Amino acid sequence: MFEKFKYLKTFPAVMIIVILLISLFFQTLPLVSTLNFEFAASSAILLFISCGLLTIYFLRKYKNLGVLLPMVLTKYKLYLWLLFIPLIISIIFNLLFQQCPIRDGMIFYAVITIPAFYFGFVCGVFSFFINKKISYLLFIGSFLIFVIIPLFEFYFNPQIYFYNPIIGLFPGTIYDEEISISNTLLFYRFLNVIFFSILLYFTIKIGNKKNFKRYIFLASLVVSIIVWISVKPLLGFASTNNSIEKILKGETLSPNYKIVYPINVNIDKKRLFVLEHEYYYQTLKRKTDLTPSNLITSFIFENADQKGKLFGTKAANVAKPWQSQIYIDQYTLDNTLEHELTHIFAAEIGSTILKITPDFNFALLEGYAMAMENDYSGFDIDYLAYLANKSDYKINLENLFSKLNFFGSASSLSYIYAGSFIKYLVKEYGIKPVNEIYQDLDFQKHVGKDLKQLNIEYSSYLDSLNYPVNINRANYFFGYKPLIKKVCPREVAAGLKKAWQEYSGEKYISAKEKFHEVYSYSNSYSALAGIIYCNTRLGMEQESKEMLEKSLKDYEGTSSYFSALLQFGDQLILTNEIRKANSVYTVLANMKPTINYFNLAITRKALIIKNEKLASDYIRGSDFDKYSILKRLNNDELFEPSIPIMVKLSQRLNENSDLFEVYLDSKQNLDEAISSNTAFVLSKYFYQNYKFIKALHYAELSIEKCKEGFRISILKAHKDKIEWIIKNKDRILSETKFSVYN
Question: How far is the C-alpha of 705 from the C-alpha of 699, rounded, in Å?
Fold first, then answer.
């Protein structure tokens, strides 16, 4: 009775069962369970291996390459089952248990997985062609080569992305949610198909003959691979230091750095790049008690898009400690430079070939950098850790410092807790034992206590800080999900990108439809905001107001709630419900999730009081309109909360800083009227515009007026930087060489 089950013992049947089981396992994994890039890439690896092994199995059975075509014609149904089992299972699970659209996933499967299946087949045939007896071993070797070559690119080149015949493309860090099928990827896949087809053609043509043509073929193959590796940067499939320098063109050599930047950067910004780098070099030497062995190279990209294209990530700034290189875009440099440079300093105590923490412990790696930086969005990290701890956003440090749990929570929580804990260790035990822990993760050995004991100590330390607790601020910073827990993150990001492209092209109806599609399956606030923007352009404010009124509860307790509340107030203004709008702004101002939201709400209330039509014009207006209206608001009497908003608008409009300075100087008693925060904003504004004396004046004023102890360290650090630059800028710049890359 068991005769009919004998086929289960054959290798092909076992292969089918294995593919089936692994495909089911994929449905339990974050990101991979959704029919999108991660699923397509994982399936590509699985099918490359299985197709290659199955092909070798059949060829060894028939013992001759001459039977390849008849074999494929005979076994094509088995190959098709092998190819489509993962896709069928993913579609079924997506339809039954998820609500993500599968269109993009099908395209990824076609572009990434199906070619990988074919390449596995070709590699199986080629392995059999080289040596029948060790064909399995040769095939596994070819797979390992495809895996190892990108690792060499990652290690020796600046890029963190790589193109690969099996998975097509590894795009970089997990922080970039949008991954799309680009023309570059399609071109790469096209070249892959041509190469493997040529390889298959000559393999079949030469067959089992062992003659001179065979050796010419193999030699030509080796030469073509070498040529391919050398031309990859020219085709956009890899990046080298040289290729990035040719695009950016600007280059500076200072005492401790080589800084590469866009050629169109003005001279003051170039000088500021140098001065900031050299300042942090001196402060980090003191903080870490370390000195880098090599000259540090800093790549500063024009914007996030350029960084994504040339380096591999738009969202994250990155350091490669083993290369003494950092990669930052110019608009986030002020916020992240010290953090990334800390990774370079820590390379002196790094314990792996990447010169980072042992076992790739990201909590210690990022915690060390956060501790030295001690600044998260303008707040002391101890304050934010205390706020999280008192607002039910607690993290167990033993879990945080274990394996890859660092990525299991909102990134802000992981970074802040890890940084605050390391900062506490430095304060309590000194930098030397912390540097030793960085090398071996042995807390007991270097401070005499294990992580469990230190966790108790640290919790007591946080409790002792006794800062005021604002649950709304906690929700703003921590009330969002990490990427691996979001609903359809890749699909949402891709859908939003297409919708915003339509919006930018003034196709508001089409854009609104796309935003609605994303919103329908994800409840994404970004999609809702897109709908609101489209409705404003289409004169459909009533619909926006009703949508926001219904949706507000969905976002309570999240970081998006405050933006939604502000938008709700704006739509009430546009539908002429002024009193209700004023009440909404009052609620938001009292919540005070950030000083910026407080200023935005209070300024709108002031506009309502001055002139209701002025408030409506402000909300509908362009940046130029908003700027002009705020100037009118400040004509008779200074309205202090509007000044930071005007600073941002002035920057977005690229207004000459001299003009804005003249405007401020025309305001009587400005110093007496402004708050600590406004003074800090003005100080940073003048600092960025290379007006250090003015920047120092407002920095001192921000400290003098500060009433929040948890901000003092941030304000003092900013003042110290300005004072150091004023004192040392002439010497540093005299030792610096500016040049253009040819």
Answer: 10
Tell whether 699 is covered by a domain.
no
Instruction: Read off the amino acid at residue 116.
Output: A
Q: Find where tokens 């209700």 sit.
A: 580
> 342: domain CATH number?
3.40.30.160
Maximum Cα–Cα distance across the chain: 100
Q: Is 556 within a domain?
A: no
Chain centroid to CA 736: 32
Q: What are the angstrom distances between the C-alpha of 633 and each of 372, 598, 607, 616?
A: 41, 17, 7, 14
Mean pLDDT for the stretch of residues 315-325: 93
- Of 453, 449, 374, the C-alpha closest to 415 is 374
Other CB atoms within 10 A of residue 186 CB: 12
- Range of the structural domain that residue 74 is part of: 3-230
- Res 9: pLDDT: 54
Quote the CA–CA distance of 474 and 384 in Å, as a whole number.
8
Structural tokens at position 686: 């003048």
Is 588 exposed, middle or buried, given 0-12, 13-18 or 19+ CB atoms closer than 10 A?
buried
Nearest 5°: the CA angle 75, 76, 81 is 105
| Domain co-membership, 99 together with 183 | yes
Predicted confidence band of residue 329 (pLDDT cuts 50, 70, 90): very high
Do 341 and 365 fall within a single domain?
Answer: no
Residue 625 domain flag: no
Q: What percent of the chain has pLDDT over 90?
A: 76
Tell me the one-letter amino acid at 346: A
Residue 709 makes CB contacts below 8 A (sequence gap 6+) with 467
Asked if 289 and 334 sit in the same domain, the reply is yes
pLDDT tens column, 268-295: 999 999 999 999 999 999 999 999 999 9
State the pLDDT confidence band at 8, using cuts at 50, 70 and 90.
Answer: very low
How much is the pTM?
0.91
Cα gap 509→535, rounded to integer Å: 9
Q: Are strands 296-301 and 325-329 parallel, antiparallel or unpaired?
A: parallel
- The verdict on residue 293 lying in a domain is yes
> In the chain, how many H helices and how many E strands?
35, 8
Specify whether the CB–CB gap between 260 and 248 falls below 8 A: yes
Whether residues 389 and 288 share a domain: the answer is no
pLDDT above 70 covers a percentage of the chain that reads: 97
Same-domain status, 110 and 224: yes
Cα separation, 526 vs 487, in Å, equals 13
Token pair 């934010």 is found at: 384
Please say if the pLDDT value at position 534 is more than 50. Answer: yes
